[in-house]
Amino acid sequence: MLKAKILIIDDNKSVLSALDILLKCEYKHVHTLSDPNLITSLPTLKEFDVVLLDMNFTASINSGNEGIYWLREIKKRVPDIAVIMMTAYGTIDLAVKALKEGATDFVIKPWNNDKLLSTIKLAYSLHRSRKKENQQEEKEGALKTTLDKKSNVIIGKSPVLQSMLKLIYKIAKTDVNILITGENGTGKELVAKEIHKNSERSNEVFISVDVGALSESLFESELFGHQKGAFTDAKENRIGKFEAANGGTLFLDEIGNLSLQLQVKLLSAIQQKTIVRVGSNKPIKVDIRLICATNSDLESSVHQGLFREDLLYRINTIAIESPPLCQRGNDIILLANHYLEKFREKYNKTDLKISEEAQKKLLAYHWPGNIRELKHVMERTVIISEGTELMSEDFILNAKPAISQDIGSKTLGEMESIMISNVLKKCNGNFSAAAEQLGISRQTLYNKVKKINNDQ
What pLDDT, on a 0 to 100 scale, did the predictor assign at position 76? Predict the structure, then answer.
């Protein structure tokens, strides 16, 4: 049996059942999904090798546009995944359109079992080949990559932002370790890139790692690398993020989510300026500028015994606070217009502008999701807009999510599942924004969603 992980997405339960039976004879991991809306909140999407995607999910609509939409969403999240489109209403034009959008192949229902298995096997082979090429390019290009200075610009003129920028420019030329604090969605990674851009290392690599999303088992391999054969899936030698960032800047996001055990390993690497790959005993010297970020109060975490004080001192030579959007006044409009320009071009709506009343509404809103929320609001509003001016009523700003279903007879676990589902829908599948509203870490939310999906 092949180790490939297959995901089948089709609203027809009979189709799902038939494909599940057929493919489980060939593949160890087969997962089915009847609701395409769950795709964007599926934390394990990147783990799949091949996706079989239906092209029509609404009765009486056979255009295939729904499938094309979900194909784009999947490829947006996992660019190198292999997607095979399925439809009972196949035409040459539809097949060509799907292939242009990144589909690997096209299958007509009802399918021939042997031909379908052959198509999936070929798609899996292409996926593995593409993945290996991408990994090789990542390793070869890691030490050469520089920031695109035009695409990483901090936008704003507010006093609180200018004060932060003044501090950035003062400390950027030094090599001290920096801790960036602030709420989720305030642009802490952009602040880190601005520091790197103005540092002596600006022509070297900037490597970003969301350490809060790393599992205990992957942490060492991801940061320090591994030797071939170090564990079951270690098919080749792989450099870690510390080595990749050698000579440049390493940005560790969500540092407050690390367990105490992982904190010890990170502290050792920072103190010694040396790492050891998993499966090796050879120390490797690394020269990096370390920038960390968190939305947690690390001093409080130290008092609670959740964060090591010695590690806090190591990463916190200088602290920079990324201000929440609600404190930045008219920067809200500057950012809204920035995203408006971006999405006008993306969705071919070049004449759009924001009305004065709409601007007042944006300025009055508290923006709990900060810049990330503003970006999602602008994209959604541009998509649904019909005229040439975005009016106040066009902007649907999120209120606190409520549990809409009847919970009178539900268990605590079912209530939690409902709440998570509602919040994810409100946040358009954005895990960071949803985690913030729920008051939990992004990794905790990933784990809860994974458990909910496994229980269903």
Answer: 85
What integer pLDDT is reported at residue 147 of this predicted model? 41
**Kind of pairing, strands 283-285 and 274-276?**
antiparallel
Strand partners, 226: 238, 278
Angle, helices 412-426 vs 442-455, to 10°: value is 120
- What do you get for the CA distance between the two ends of the chain, in Å? 25
Residue 392 is predicted with a pLDDT of 92
Q: Tell me how long the chain is.
A: 456
Q: What distance separates the 2 farthest-apart alpha carbons in the chain?
A: 66
Structure confidence by residue, pLDDT tens digits, 279-291: 888 899 999 999 9
What are the b/e assignments for 398-415, b being 16+ CB within 10 Å? beebeeeeeeeeeeeeee
Measured CA distances, 294 to 54, 158, 209, 252, 315 (Å): 40, 23, 12, 9, 11
Q: Is 346 helix (H, G, I), strand (E, B) or coil?
A: helix
DSSP H helical segments within 106-259, as ranges?
A: 113-141, 159-171, 188-197, 216-224, 241-244
Listed as own residue / partner, the contacts of 21-28 with beta carbons closer than 8 Å and 24 or more positions apart are 22/113, 22/116, 22/117, 23/117, 23/120, 26/1, 26/2, 26/117, 26/120, 27/1, 27/2, 27/3, 28/1, 28/2, 28/3, 28/4
Name beta bridge partners: 283: 276
In DSSP terms, 321 is beta-bridged to: 181
- Within a 13 Å sphere around the CA of 150, how many CA atoms are in the beta-carbon half? 0
Containing H/E element for 379? Answer: helix 370-384
Q: Find all residues with CB under 8 Å of 260, minimum gap 6, and list them.
A: 306, 307, 308
Beta bridge partners of 309: none
How far is it, in rounded angstroms, from Cα 83 to Cα 87?
Answer: 13
Judge whether 339 and 375 are in contact, CB under 8 Å: yes
Stretches where the chain sits below pLDDT 50 are 139, 142-150, 400-407
Query: Per the confidence metrics, is the pTM higher than 0.85?
Result: no
Residue 176 is encoded by which pair of tokens? 């001290």
